Amino acid sequence: xxxxxxxxxxxxxxxxxxxxxxxxxxxxxxxxxxxxxxxxxxxxxxxxxxxxxxxxxxxxxxxxxxxxxxxxxxxxxxxxxxxxxxxxxxxxxxxxxxxxxxxxxxxxxxxxxxxxxxxxxxxxxxxxxxxxxxxxxxxxxxxxxxxxxxxxxxxxxxxxxxxxxxxxxxxxxxxxxxxxxxxxxxxxxxxxxxxxxxxxxxxxxxxxxxxxxxxxxxxxxxxxxxxxxxxxxxxxxx
Length: 238
Prior knowledge:
Strand content: 5-15%
CATH class of the domain at 36-113 and 157-181: Mainly Beta
Oligomer: single chain
CATH superfamily of the domain at 36-113 and 157-181: FAS1 domain
Order of helices and strands: HHHHEHHHEEEEEHH
Structural class: alpha+beta
């Protein structure tokens, strides 16, 4: 009897354990969306750039692009030392549109790894625009050495701040200044000078038509002159 009871108990326990549901795996925490400000804050040394990204709203634009774009973004991040080497008051001399253009000039609308910069065609298109004369950025790469020139500034990539499958942030030790800020815009052509005949016509039109009194005075002078000439001729004849 004891043996039968033990067998029945073992069968009951094995049946109960087989029917009990397995424990559900713990949920994996989702990674937070990429935030360019958080990346630069963590790296340190980008206080001025962070302020520009916030005031121009480009930070929000970058974060939004990373959520919606499949091509990724490459961002050249000037350090605080890079901004401090600018001419005093330079940033304050820029209007809001120029500040936005300055930040956009540091962004490529594609993800480029350090080893792939030599595959780009110059001038490289930035998010500031595609004007090759005023917004040209030329990049040459050799291995992990990347050189850049804007026609105003020459610099190199100083290192990788952050990289993932969508975003690459590279440190640069100079602010990339586009020629657009330093070349004078072509002025509108000046109107052709008016000719002497045109000026005389305008003056006569401004003075208005001659009055009857002026005509009468002119006729009186002519009559007097005619009488003098006539009297002189008669005197000579006599």
